[in-house]
Structures
1.
Amino acid sequence: MILLGLPGTLSKCIFRLSLIFLVMATPARGQYEDQYVSYADFYSCLAPYGQWIQEPQYGYVWAPAVEGDFRPYYTNGKWVMSEYGNLWASDYPWGWAAFHYGRWTYDTYYGWLWIPGDTWAPAWVKWRADDGVFGWAPLGPGTSENVSTKCPADWWVFLPQRYIYHDQYYRYWNGPGNNSKYLKSTRPVNNTFDHRGTTYITGPGMSQVKQATGGPVQVYRVRDSKSRNMRMHNDEVKLFKPGKIAPTVPGSGEDPYPADVVVAPYPLKEPQGVNDDPTHEVPFRQEMLTKRNTPHIVPGTGINPTAEPERRANRTDNNPYEWDVSRQVKQDPKPPAEPKPAAKQPPKPAPGRKAKPGKQGNEKPAAPAREGATTPAPRETKR
């Protein structure tokens, strides 16, 4: 770079200042973590995929528009080992928020609800393990970042240890029927990690998983992304993860609030057991879809039933807890019907011989025959 008409010393100074300016203007790793994000981003980004509810105890909570037997940290995603510990890689477009910030709870009236939080973690869950299984459950509403109230037994998912990172892990959980037994035989996994002043439970360590699976464990590097859709490529996981969520909008003088929100008809109870009936529809969702246009409901509210279009896929077994994570919906609970046997074709006549008259195999005649009529014999073709 040559600055014409300037003394040599001044030219060098300007050149050095320009280099410093370019370095400062270049986005550094972690810059996306420091960008400003508020609760208003939660409210606007998640609104198309569910319903915001104003609840007296927890403020604004969110009900996702999902199938009735949805489970957080089980449906439409998988576990991967990251540099921060076990990370839940979700396929939902709202997974960047609901599985990496805040808490979950289950209420028999509302179903699963997400309670927003302002601190990122690879997953807000607690873990248990013994010599044969790993288990995890979402953290419910608690008093600190890594302490949770006791959750019902059927919140837990227990898998054989060797399938913890399997792409089809969902085939190896047969439901919560054995959870009480596993809760007695397993021990808490209290491995922790401190990330930017926040301590959270990381779950089984790499050496423990390597011993259980009998093979190498890939450790993914977590990279910041502007996109809210998570991407996995080679040894990297790219996801949107602002470091801190601001509770208020600067200069607004008030807390942000969802544009479409309904007042909770009933206050939330303590975390309750899950209804795993695939045909069960929680009362809140059913009432919102029924009453969304009445004067008692704020216009424009209600869960969008088309947020996740249903797509069918053939099941591979009769496990009612098996999910097709690539399609983001639960598979058909009924096994596919067995195909009907194909009609047997009559054997071809040998060369030089006439075919026998009459119907051929199971084929129907071209037109219904009149009563008493006979089928004429085919003429012999002259050679």
Note: The chain has one domain: 33-330.
2.
Amino acid sequence: MVKRIVKRDDRREDYDREKLRRGVMKAAERAEIDEARAKELADKVANKIEVDQREEMRAEDIRNILLEELDREERAIADAFREFKKEQ
């Protein structure tokens, strides 16, 4: 199971399922997608990440998994997530 996330600047932080969920929820809110649907998708993505056998995973790999799943399941959330990240 993934325990740590390697950030772009090579810092490491503990994997946090809730942080991933919060990001999806913010994007879903912007896209005006139902909260229950957003939680379902966040959990689906988190489950994919958590079954990975690596101890560490790059943040960009997590983002790619997230966006791939959102593009497939709920494009509006994926687009809102991309837009939100551009603003930061």
Note: The radius of gyration is 13 Å.
3.
Amino acid sequence: MTLQQPAPAWRDRVGSGGLRRRSRGEPATASPVGRDQANRLGWGLVAPAVLVLLALTIFPAAYLVYASFRSYNLMTPEAATFVGLDNYRNIVADPDLRHSMLVTLLFVVLAVGIEFAFGLCLALILARKSRENTIAATLLILPMAVTPVVSALVWRELLNPNYGWVDYYLRRIGLMHEPVAWLSQPVTAWIAVISLDVWQWTPFVALILMAGLQGIPPEPREAAAVDGATGWRLFWDVIFPLLRPFVAIAVLLRTLDAFKTFGTIDVLTGGGPGVSTEIINLTIYRTALQDFSVGAAAALGISFLVVLSIIVPQMLRILARNSDLVEG
């Protein structure tokens, strides 16, 4: 004879506002008090990071905008006055500032263009997976590991006309008869600045493009080869369109970084000879920390940021068209 166990009391209260047994897989519902405590805990954990973000980015940016509308000199802070848009009007009217902006654009175009050309060639050479190519790709990282200021110091010594290696070996192989003062003439100073940037950052472009080439599936190339496409036609019609997103990433990252260049040119040429290599970052630095004109430097920095915000999206739209990096 089997005795029937009485049903648990909680079953009688299902659906009547009492306890209800949670079925398997049904999520537990937190009480309002528990949710409030979790929210407070979350905000408490995030608060230090938010405060650091406000202190290091938001407040300085807001002060920069505020200072750009004032005539503020660090030597006479009590004489600061509100001048409205005068600092911005001076940027448009000052030929030296326009010269600095043109020098910056020329530097970015030459440096990034040459780095992309050399980087693409290196990527095509090293894209095939082998032990030798792996070693070569590892060695490519070494120039990027050198601090830009240190590389500029070394470059300056190599280009010294009295004891530099560059002049010495160029004379040994017969390419020149007299030493060249590379940093004393505008043309040779530009060659030195561009060659330093190309030496240090071409590997960055090459590694990105090499990763893109190694990620291209073999089927499109094999189908194009069956149709008779070889050499340049195979690269331009099949490989390069598939490589376009990586090209956009490499060029955009290098463009943004080239616009931020400061230490290498400051150490190597100091903007000289004259103002032939005076990029906009050097001008901002001198305006703020040598002339102590904070208001003018703030307006110049904001104007430079506006120019970048216009150039970069257009570059992305051109370089990454028909890819997932841009919509439509």
Note: The chain has twelve helices and two strands.
4.
Amino acid sequence: MLLNSETSVQPTKNVTNWGMHGADLAVGLLQGDIDKDNFNRSYLITGPEAVGKRTLATRFAQAIFSPNGEQNDSYSIYDAIEKEEFGDVAWVRIGGACGGNRADGTCHVHPKRFIGVCQIRWMVRKMNTKSFNANHKVFVVDSINDLSLGEEQSFSALLKQLEEPPPHTTILLLSANPDNLNLTIRSRCQLVQIPAMSRDLLRDAILKSNLTENIQSATKYAAIAKGRYGRAYTQLTDPAYEITLNSILEDVESLARAGSQDRMNYSERLAKAWRNEPEVVLETLNIWKAWWREALQITTDVVPIELSIFHHQANSQLTSGIALQALAALEEAENNLQTNVNARLALDMMMIDIPQVSNTH
């Protein structure tokens, strides 16, 4: 079974640390600039996918325009920012409006797979108009890497604004891959990093947030989410996810012992899914890696079988060498998929390279 893609994170209105987990340094930096009324003109917010970059951008805007959150008389502003309905906070993303005359707010040259120059020009026009409710404006480009897929004109238009934005204007650029960005863009922004959390810290955050009261469940999701609270939140608040997760884990275990035909059938399913939902395939491989990482920990006596999350009984035929080979195959497949190697070929090779484990226990 494959995962259903879902990345949204529902709001929290706790103003302590802006209601975020694992982002204390980032929150402290931005809150400090607000307290000093000394904003940088532009910030580059970086971190892994689903680590909380969008949430941080939202909380930053809320801290500017509704600093006391729900206790403020202007709480409706806080809520409007959460819903992306506040006029002085604008989001620029793939598929977003560009001020065109079509019914959906786009123009006839509006791109569908990247952020286009028409959207950057729309942002510039909004920067130079009077604010609706305050004397400040915030613009969020989500993500700046999507601009890198577009025209050179988009870069030029954005660079000019990063260098000389209008007064009382702040630009937030979100990126999961800052190393792939133009050096000039990076040099003109204040870097704000949200790191992935350790598994133990994420487990504790899951428990403190009451996403689950079960320690083993919290540990399991902390391992799968790879330090990303946003991903753990999405998974734990999706009623169907546990069923999907258990199905994938069953696939991993059965295919570890399966022959070539069953493996090729599974590879074919993944390759078909890759065409329309590549993020689903990558997350599926992530779960495979979590299972095999724990297998490695068990075979090297780092984790005793009675404390394991994914493995319920020992298998004397499962060795550290086999686990290492499997992890290497999964890593290579992920790298090949992300560098546009033929998906079916990459996944077939992965299934061939993962060693077959005997059923002996």
Note: The first strand starts at residue 42 and ends at 46.
